Amino acid sequence: MTQAKAIFAGGCFWCMVHPFDQQPGIHSVISGYTDGHVENPTYEEVCSGETGHTEAVEITYDPAIISYAELVEIYWLQTDPTDAFGQFQDRGSSYRPVIFYQNEEERLIAQTSKDKLQASGRFDRPIVTEIKPIAPFYEAEEYHQDFYKKDPSRYKASSQPRETFVKDAWHEK
């Protein structure tokens, strides 16, 4: 069995796990931090905005079952790609939307997808999600892992603004 990894930042990592976790070919979805300048940051350090990190998910998947391009498409459907300063109620640099790539092929897949989304006219504002080279990923504290399973009512409350946006923005136009 072949395994590959992908990293996406789309606001609160609690809300990014479930949509990927439910897909065939996904082996794990880990909440964590990436794209900063401090090794092994804590949640409190990342939230302070001083480490440069963003909350992200690291997805381990089988590319024979689900492709990187499919993961990118799932990613878009979880985010507001027009908001560079956070996602939904979560504001600040630690919640910025970023697609991370490992090689030129992934960069081209992500960029082509972004360009296609911009050209679609679905959004009135520019698509501002960044596409950046992969950076070291640090696993978040255990209490953040699989949060939607551990505390369903709190997860539901925190994911409501995202769910409302997704329903309104991503329905067929």
Automatic annotation (TrEMBL):
Active-site residue list: C12
Reactions that this protein is recorded to catalyse: L-methionyl-[protein] + [thioredoxin]-disulfide + H2O = L-methionyl-(S)-S-oxide-[protein] + [thioredoxin]-dithiol; [thioredoxin]-disulfide + L-methionine + H2O = L-methionine (S)-S-oxide + [thioredoxin]-dithiol
Keyword Transferase part of the UniProt annotation: no
Organism domain of life: Bacteria
EC number: 1.8.4.11
SUPFAM superfamilies linked to this entry: Peptide methionine sulfoxide reductase
Biased amino acid composition, Basic and acidic residues: 164-173
UniProt-annotated stretches for the region Disordered: 151-173
Keywords: Oxidoreductase
EC category name: oxidoreductase
UniProt keyword Oxidoreductase present: yes
Pfam family of the protein (one): PMSR
Ranges where the Peptide methionine sulphoxide reductase MsrA domain occurs: 5-156
Single GO MF descriptor: peptide-methionine (S)-S-oxide reductase activity
HAMAP family: MsrA (MF_01401)
Protein family membership: Belongs to the MsrA Met sulfoxide reductase family.
Reported function: Has an important function as a repair enzyme for proteins that have been inactivated by oxidation. Catalyzes the reversible oxidation-reduction of methionine sulfoxide in proteins to methionine.
NCBIfam families: msrA (TIGR00401)
Record protein name field: Peptide methionine sulfoxide reductase MsrA
Organism this protein belongs to: Vagococcus xieshaowenii
Source organism phylogeny: Bacteria, Bacillati, Bacillota, Bacilli, Lactobacillales
